[in-house]
Amino acid sequence: MSAFHHVVAYAPPGVTGLSIGVVSGVFAPSGVFDLRPGLPAFDLTLCTRRPGTLRTDGGLTLQIEHGLEAFAKAELIMVLPGTSFREDLNDCALDALGAAHRRGAIVAGHCVGSFLLAAAGLLDGLDATTHWQYADEMAAMFPKVVVRRDALYIDHGQVSTGAGATAGLDLSLHLLRAHHGATVANRIARDLVTPPHRTGGQAQYLDTPVPSYDDCRLEAVLTWAKANLGERPSVDQLAARAMISRRTFLRRFKQTTGTSPHAWLTSQRLNQAEELLETTDLPIERIAHHVGYTSGSALRDQFVRQRGVPPQDYRRTFRGQSVQAKRHARGKSAQ
Predict the structure, then answer these.
(1) Fold of 6-191
(2) Which are the contacts of 225, defined by CB distance < 8 A and separation ≥ 6?
(3) Model confidence over 258-293: pLDDT tens digits?
């Protein structure tokens, strides 16, 4: 996948302040944060239907300089959610969005921003998601769209949708990971003090939002598992470390993480493999054993199934970007 640099965020009337903070934090232009030397330089433009004063959902007023013409040069368009999402489905925004998509721009919307993508016909015949509170409404308004109520985000390559609130952060980091590599996504996530990767199939909301003693104990087990993937920990071993029965462990794991131990371990193995492919010259076989696969072929099979490309191709794509970033950082420090 090609890397994007020119990002345009479309802010509808009543845009949520949280969504503006998400795109500004993830796709911050160079120089905004001192902690990001060597990372890709993003050109972030905030636009609206008509330039001028725009009021957020919290009552703040923003002065927006750019209109829909900003779509013309965008490589990634993030459609932000707003309180006017039912009335903002106007022809000019839909036409501009469709034209950008036909030109090859990546288009993504989260929360009720997904409604605009659906109205433009970009989600016809595809799975999509939105905030769980509005999933039924979206399904009724756009019957050609397969609305998945529980997914955090769904990526179809050139068009993506995400759930509500902080799922916009998950979607943004996923797009970074897909187009700039795991190293870039992980560094920006660390700068934002947020988990670097939650899988798109994870549930939007969990049964136990307030951590309990058992949750803290489980968190320690997950931290140990991530550090010991090469030992191929089993569910029974993890349950024993948590000092609970296998049945209770499986139930608590699902409640706390929104997924199964097998899916979680697979995700952690692939995440770690990505970073090793980008930052080291280790052979595929060594990487496979390091992250807990029995052979290089097992890693290749899982990598192709989950990431769509073989590990070697992933390394060729993102290893070069990682090297360029390090050279850029060295050049900056020498100035």
Answers:
(1) Rossmann fold (3.40.50)
(2) 233, 238, 265, 268
(3) 789 999 999 999 999 999 999 999 999 999 999 999
